[in-house]
Each structure stands twice: as C-alpha cells, then as structure tokens.
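Title: Prediction job returns without error message
Component: structure pipeline
Severity: low
Priority: P3
Assignee: unassigned

Description:
Job completed but the reporter wants confirmation the result is attached to the right record. Sequence as submitted:
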Amino acid sequence: MACEYVSELKDEAWRDAIEAFLGVHRYAILVSPQAFDVANQVMDRSGHRYVELVNTKRLAERKIKCEEDSVYHYLQIQNETAAKYFQFWLGAIHAVELDEVAKYDNAMSKEGKLGRNMAVTYINTKKIKSYCLGGAAIELNRKRAAKKLDQLEKREKEILSSRHTMQNQDVFLQSSLDYFKDYNLEANRECEHLNAELEAEKVRYRELLEAEEQKHLEEEQQLNRSAAEQAITEYDRYLAGEDKKGGIMQLSEKEQMEKRVSSFAANINGQQQAYNNRKQEEERLPIGLEYEKSYHQRRGKIWIDDLQNLQQKLKEQTMHFQKRICSEYLRDGKGCKKRHRTDQQRASQAEIRDMLSV
C-alpha cells in the first residue's frame, strides 16, 4: 500500500490535514510499472475488485510538476514510484498559512483549509479513524485508542452507577407500593364519575318536579271546572223551577267553607312567615297566597343548592385526601409504615364514603 512507503511525516502539525485530504488513497496498491499489467489482470479475476490499484505504468510516463512549497515536501518517502504517486496528489498544492489559502488556485493550510477548483473549504479531519503515514502513526493510534478506551470505561462506570441507582429506586418503589394497597388511588376518577351521576340526577329531579307541578295544576283545574259546571247546572234547574233550593250552597255550609279557606290561608301565611324568619332580609319572599308558587320554586332550588354544596365539599375532601397521600409519600417513604397516619387517612376515606351515602 502507498502509506507503507512513507517513513516519516516531518511536521506533525500537518498530519490531520494531509491524511484527511488523501483519505482512502493512502491505501492504494502500488506495484512496479513492469508488473502493472499482471496486477490489473489479477484484479479482474479477483473477488476484491473495489481496491484502488495505482496505474503505475502511466504514472511513470507522466511528467509531474512539484512546487517548491508543496505539501508533498512534508513527507519522507522511500520508494521512487510511491514518491511520484504522492507528488501526483500533493505536488501542486502549496503549503501556506491560513490567511494565504485564498490567494492560490491550489493551496492548503495545516488547519485543514483547502483552496482548489476555484473554491475554498475545510477538510473534515474528524473522519480520520486511524493514522497510517510514517512510523509515528502506530504510537499515535495507540494513544488515541487508549484515550478512547479511558472515555468508554468512564462512561461504563457512569452507566453502571446509574443502573445501580435505578435498581435501588425500583426496589424502593416496589416496597412502597405495598403501603398503598389500602388506599383508593382511583378516588379522583370515581369523583368525576360521581359528579356526572349527580348532574344526571339533578336533571332528572327538575323533570320530576316540573311534571309534579303540571299534574297538580291539571288536577286543580279539573276540580274547579267540575265544581263550576255543577253550580251552573243546579242554578239553571233552580231558575227552571226544578230545584226549590236554588242549587246554591246553604249559609251554614258557606260559612264553614269560608272558615276552612281562611284557616288554610292563615296556615299557609304562617308557614311563609316562619320560613322568612329563618332567612336574611335579602333572601325573604313576599307573603300571600298569590306567592305560593315562588315558595315551591325556592324549595326545588334549595335541594339543588344543597346538592351543589355536597358536591363541592366532596371535591375539597378528595383534593385534601390526595395531597395528604402525595406529601406523606414524598417526605419519607418509610413513614408509610406508621400506622397512625394510615388510621387518619382511612378516617378521611370514611368521611368521603359517608358523604357519598348521603
């Protein structure tokens, strides 16, 4: 291979730039010009057709100009054919400082900046996997391998330490889960389900209340209609002489009915007054038979308000219960073993169940 004929690199500062520029051409197969035809035929019959075989026969015939300040002069080469091969690649490239690269058609700096084909760029020196030019390449590769090995060993220790920590955490979490078997970790989801049921129950109650009021109104209308029709019929019979009593209510019965009506009215007014006495001034309702419907509406609203208060209290108790579990768990996992905390948390669950039963 071509790289085997390079005995020394005169300035190590240029190594990365030169080796990265040559790339795979460092491993090109070199034979004498007289043996090229045979080597070419062997390659045609060989399964290794993707090697780079230098056409030394044409290389020997070609006149190559090597600049006095070319990069080639940083190499010390033992073989004439190999020297001409490296002159072909490096002889026309001027070795200059970084700020001088753009002044030449073909130039290179030790930092890897390359001017060629009317363009300037940087050679990617990171793609070098190993050095192969000169006797120092073996020692450089050894140092690079030792550095890489040291980095890998440090990384391995970090991974093992992290793995050990994660295993300890896993053991701790598994043991901690045993202390939460008595807790209902689905309390939040159950609360949401209960809220949905409460909303549905509230809608159903409104519908039942409206249906009851409508039925009561229809019954009263029917009763009043029947009484009126009966009174009209009896009065018509009185006018026709068929009923001497006149079809009207007797005085005693009328007085008794009026007393009953007055008693009912007084009872209703008294209940309205008692209700208002329990309320603040702004929450009181007017008193009178004509306002009885307002009291019925208030009764339905009171039930709904109580339902909402119960729902809010249940939500607060649930949030308080969850915060207590999280704070106890984060402060000290071992504290879960203390039974008096467990008793307190069970008491909180009992309170929630009592509220749900209500």
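Comment from assignee: result matches the submitted record. The CA atoms of residues 21 and 240 lie 134 Å apart.
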